[in-house]
From TrEMBL, chain A:
Gene Ontology cellular component list: ATP-binding cassette (ABC) transporter complex
GO biological process: response to antibiotic
Family: Belongs to the ABC-2 integral membrane protein family.
Database matches in InterPro entries: ABC2_TM (IPR013525), ABC2_TM_bact-type (IPR047817), ABC_2_transport (IPR000412), Nod_factor_ABC_transporter (IPR051784)
Protein name: Transport permease protein
Classification via PROSITE patterns: ABC_TM2 (PS51012)
This protein's record includes keyword Transcription regulation: no
Entry keyword set: Antibiotic resistance, Cell membrane, Membrane, Transmembrane, Transmembrane helix, Transport
Main location: membrane
Pfam families the UniProt entry points to: ABC2_membrane
GO molecular function, one term: ABC-type transporter activity
Cell location: Cell membrane; Membrane
Length: 286, 341
């Protein structure tokens, strides 16, 4: 975000009393460039938060380390056997699942931080400024995606250390991309919760309650074949199963097409429904 | 209010409010408010907690929409032209609306960028305003480490980035100690000197007198009085003179002496035995001079003599015949706990 020559040179000629006049169209709609500038400024703000409070990155570092080690060494042996291998077979199974989970894990945190903003007066100031209401939300999502990428790199390092064997690096990139797409779709859900719920704690509790059954009731950690029939009915339609299976297919080989389309459809649908809801709730919050 | 006439253009008026209504369930936060603020003046909106002051400011700064009525700021309609309106206002909320995790400089730079200043302009504006609000040394420290007064000054600086035509200050000194409060008053007066129109809400008559040229008194969502400060002061009985004799034994004789003195228009005194003072309601500087002169001539040694403005409660009592809706909130600023975290 460092300073390179301004992209808004036309503004310099604007009279001091209306420094922004050149950036607005006659009916005061905000131009695309304006939206990008506002979102960029807010991304900078959220990145400065991390610099000020590096501990906020702990979860992004610890989550992949703890989850990988926990699952590989606690469950890896026994689940691996049923996969027809051993612990190593489970590593090949679970790492793509964990990779797929990164986006959604970051999504959970986005609502919490957003909610905290409302309890200070900062949001009032933002909402009294001539910026697009969505900018504040887009910036939040952009920063969480950066955190997700960071967590993914950490996960990859740990995964390689426990012997993960990537057969397709292009597939790896594709699955990180997919995780980000699905994660950002989910972030709109949590941003909405962050706007409408009263305290950061309740947002966090809600996120946990929603995501926990979805994560474990999916094919992320274990194959669903051994689950009872009624649960399989749930896991088959759980988008997290599709996401995890796609990641698996992309990274270590296997069928991809069907699950990929299901995951993309979920992402598009969630975004199409929840992004307008989140922006509307944000705009009208009193 | 006197200045209400149906001129739809709103010429010469920075803020124009007609029949503004906002209900929250059963609570009538605003129940038909009319208000005008002329360009370049300071309007004080005085009232107790829950009178609707904050609701008014939030509607005028487009944070919430009214249920009924009309309001324009700098000629822009709060409902129809919110985007244009946001370009010409500054807002300092009741609780410091700065990002506590960001350094002071970054707070101002951020607002500059959000107001579409170029990077260069935003940088120099941040430097300039930090300097002006005496925050240059703290520029790189997170705002969370600032004292209450510094945070409020940063808040004011942030409101000034866009060189607003109209500035809304919602209880700018609530929760500040007296010294800090004076600093904030000085800053507000300087901004007014720059030609900004200000609408400020307050619970303190003293603050209104310091800053406002005109006053609107609100209670339970309604305007109950309005006009020039002097006009209102005359209406509510002006100041009270607190005369404390050096010898407590002189207390009652002094009160009796002043009551019998016969200074024109002087109301009868009361004795505050607890604090050893005689309270004399005065309406003019002439009366003040006459009282001091008489006491001196009588040869009574005084420990102190101070003038006090009527409290919000007394203002309400004389305007409405009832006490302010939330009397516990009418205590002076310096006895309140730091509310702005």
């Amino acid at each position: 975000m460092s300073a390179h020559p301004s992209t808004t040179a036309t503004l310099d000629q604007a009279p001091p009393a209306a420094p922004s006049a050149a950036a607005v169209t006659p009916d005061a709609r905000i131009s695309l460039r304006g939206h990008l500038r506002h979102t960029g400024a807010l991304v900078r703000r959220n990145l400065l938060w991390i610099r000020q409070d590096p501990e906020s990155m702990f979860d992004a570092v610890l989550f992949p380390v703890v989850f990988t080690l926990l699952f590989v060494y606690v469950f890896g042996g026994s689940i691996g056997q049923s996969l027809g291998g051993g612990q190593q077979a489970y590593v090949q199974y679970v790492v793509p699942g964990l990779m797929a989970m990164m986006g959604m894990n970051m999504a959970q945190g986005v609502g919490t931080g957003f909610n905290q903003d409302f309890n200070s007066g900062v949001m009032d100031r933002f909402r009294s400024l001539p910026i697009g209401r969505g900018s504040v939300l887009f910036a939040k999502i952009a920063v969480e995606l950066l955190r997700m990428l960071f967590a993914t790199v950490v996960l990859l390092v740990v995964a390689l250390l426990v012997g993960f064997d990537i057969t397709d690096w292009g597939g790896l990139l594709a699955s990180v991309g997919l995780s980000a797409v699905f994660g950002s779709a989910l972030m709109w859900v949590f941003l909405t919760l962050g706007v409408i719920m009263k305290s950061a704690q309740s947002v966090q509790a809600m996120g946990f309650l929603v995501l926990m059954p979805l994560q474990f009731g999916s094919s992320i950690f274990a194959p669903t074949q051994s689950m009872p029939g009624w649960l399989q009915g749930f896991t088959d339609y759980n988008p997290l199963s599709s996401l995890a299976d796609t990641a698996r297919g992309l990274m270590v080989g296997g069928p991809v097409a069907h699950d990929l389309w299901v995951t993309l459809a979920w992402s598009v649908a969630l975004t199409a429904v929840m992004a307008p809801v989140a922006i509307h709730k944000f705009r009208t919050k009193s | 209010m006197k200045r209400i006439h149906d001129d739809p253009s709103g010429a010469g008026r920075a803020v124009s409010v007609r029949g503004l209504v906002k209900h929250y369930g059963e609570t009538k936060a605003l129940d038909g408010v009319d208000l005008d603020v002329r360009e370049g003046t300071v309007m004080g909106v005085l009232g107790p907690n829950g009178a609707g002051k904050t609701t008014l400011v939030r509607i005028l700064s487009t944070l919430i929409t009214p249920d009924a009525g009309r309001a324009t700021v700098a000629g822009y309609d709060v409902m129809g032209q919110p985007r244009q309106l946001r370009r010409v206002i500054g807002l300092t909320g009741q609780y410091a609306s700065v990002d506590e995790k960001l350094p002071g400089w970054e707070n101002l730079y951020l607002i500059g960028r959000l107001l579409d200043l170029s990077r260069k302009e935003a940088r120099s504006r941040a430097d300039e305003l930090l300097e002006r609000f005496s925050l240059t040394e703290a520029a790189r420290r997170p705002a969370g480490t600032y004292s209450g007064g510094m945070r409020r000054r940063l808040d004011l600086a942030a409101s000034m980035i866009g060189r607003p035509a109209v500035l809304f200050l919602d209880e700018p000194t609530t929760g500040l100690d007296p010294r800090t409060r004076n600093e904030v008053w000085d800053e507000v007066q300087r901004m007014v000197g720059d030609g900004v129109t200000v609408l400020l809400t307050t619970q303190y008559m003293e603050e209104a007198e310091q800053l406002a040229t005109e006053l609107t008194v609100v209670d339970r969502g309604k305007v109950i009085a309005g006009g020039g400060i002097e006009e209102l002061k005359a209406k509510v009985g002006g100041r009270t003179l607190r005369v404390r004799p050096a010898d407590p034994l002189h207390l009652r004789p002094l009160a009796a002496f002043l009551d019998e003195l016969g200074i024109t228009g002087l109301a009868s005194t009361t004795v505050d035995a607890e604090r050893g003072a005689v309270l004399v309601p005065i309406l003019s500087d002439e009366q003040l001079t006459a009282v001091v002169g008489a006491v001196t001539a009588r040869g009574i040694t005084l420990a102190s003599i101070t003038t006090e403005l009527p409290s919000l409660d007394e203002v309400f009592l004389s305007l409405t015949g009832h006490r302010a809706s939330a009397p516990q909130d009418a205590t002076p600023a310096d006895t309140r706990e730091e509310a702005a975290v």
